[in-house]
Structure prediction request, 278 residues.
Amino acid sequence: MIRLATIRKGGGRLRAVRVEDEHAVELPFDDVGKLLNAADWESLIAKDGPRRELSSLSFAPVVPQPEKIICVGQNFRTHVEEMGRDLPLHPTLFAKYARALIGAYDDIVLPDNSSRIDFEAEVAVVIGRPLRRATPESAANAIAGYTIMNDVSARDWQYRTSQWLQGKTFEQTTPLGPVLVVDNPNQLSELEISCEINGEVVQRGSTSDLIFGSADVAAYISNILTLAPGDVIALGTPAGVGQARTPPMYLKPDDVIITRVTHVGECRNACRRRLSAA
Prediction:
């Protein structure tokens, strides 16, 4: 099982690395997204290079500047049920933009113009080769691997209209990483997902509860637009989100949120406040 990451080297520089047990091996690309755009990336990830101690690393979003971030809403049966909705017939899609992304251990910025910031632990897949009008079988072969995302959402903005985008892409809110696990996408059927806030587990689920699997979603999207290497697809969240609780539970400054996915590890993010004008 190969793990890739993008690390910060200082001075705004980034580097793609292969993460091993105690070290990270630098690869000849600025970040994982650029690596995946190389035609022979699957052979390049085994290359040797300078080694860095894992404890010294600062992790950027695993793909810092994806061309597209596409998210699937209402894709876990338990989450659909807790929100009081019918199971969807087709994937519910919305987008995020790259400025929303943060690293696996960076602070989540809570905008002061929202009072209902929610958490949504998710598995995300990253595309490894161009995909257009694909079958689920060919889409599965185009998935490079999977990682962790938390789809932090401003519910008061999200539900201002029937369109969700405005609540989903506030800047510096969405951890992505720490690593991309390059593995058989069939493993996605058995991953456990959890979210913990200040030591309390608030979400726990399995990708076996997905309504639309990763290959089905990637194939569906590819019939709308071309998926490019480095594109991120977030597959949805299990039950337990703050909006569905009684009373509702929202993120606040100094909360520490830990998002875990089997084989990937965890994102650990503290919440802090930033003025909306900043």
Observations:
- Residues 214-222 form the longest helix (9 residues).
